[in-house]
Amino acid sequence: MLSEALLSGASPQLRNMASTGGNLLQHTRCYYFRDITAACNMREPGSGCSAIAGYNRIHAILGTSDKCIATHPSDMCVALAALGAVIRVSGPKGDRAIPFDQFYVAYGEDPAKLNNLQHGELITHVDVPNLPFAKRSHYLKVRDRASYEFALTSAAIALDMDGQTIKEARVGLGGIATKPWRSQEAEQALTGKTANDQTFKAAADAALSGAKPQQFNAFKVDLAKRTIVKALSTVAAMS
What we know:
By secondary structure, the protein is an alpha+beta fold. It folds into two domains: about 1-125, Uridine Diphospho-n-acetylenolpyruvylglucosamine Reductase, domain 3 (2-Layer Sandwich), CATH 3.30.465; about 130-235, CO dehydrogenase flavoprotein, C-terminal domain (Enolase-like, domain 1, 2-Layer Sandwich). It contains nine helices and seven strands. It has helices at about 1-10, 10-15, 20-25, 50-55, 75-85, 100-105, 185-190, 195-205, 220-235; strands at about 85-90, 95-100, 120-125, 135-140, 155-160, 165-175, 180. It has a four-stranded antiparallel sheet with strand order 4-5-6-7, sandwiched between helices. Strands 2-1-3 form a three-stranded antiparallel sheet. The radius of gyration is 18 Å and the shape is globular.
């Protein structure tokens, strides 16, 4: 799963120049954040969010607020979210470990604050837990073109199965949220259930139950559900 996410994220030239820390700290993907003539609470707190009433096809439908709907761009981080990675940092006050689900912050009242790094802290490395069932995993990315492009939707799936029964599941979602998104709602809908199309559709519905689409990105709700079902079906079919 992690290698699939890395390979789908960028060309070999970019991957050779990139770093894991840089991937974790990628800034938001939003037309209006990069347009200094547009209102953007992330760039200039209190100025407003032009994306909400603007052209918001690429924007988020999960984890949004009335102040920001920008999408997190990473592929690798979606897999790290599903795998429950731990981010190790070092700074003036010493070393600390940050669970992946606590590293990013909701845009909420302060869209300019993207993560829980403190002043002077540096990411030193990332621990990925040894999950035996992660061998049965898959990263599926849906995008506008086949070559390197940001995800419209993506799903990182790992299943621990006993026959056709799902003992444990990990579900990470990308392209649709303000941060790399782990869907515990989908995981709960899968756990203890039989691996079949009905179960996968129920999990997809649970994952998108809190979605708040805008005018131009409402298609992402159905597309994300289809992405989840397809990824689940692929993993369930693995020997």
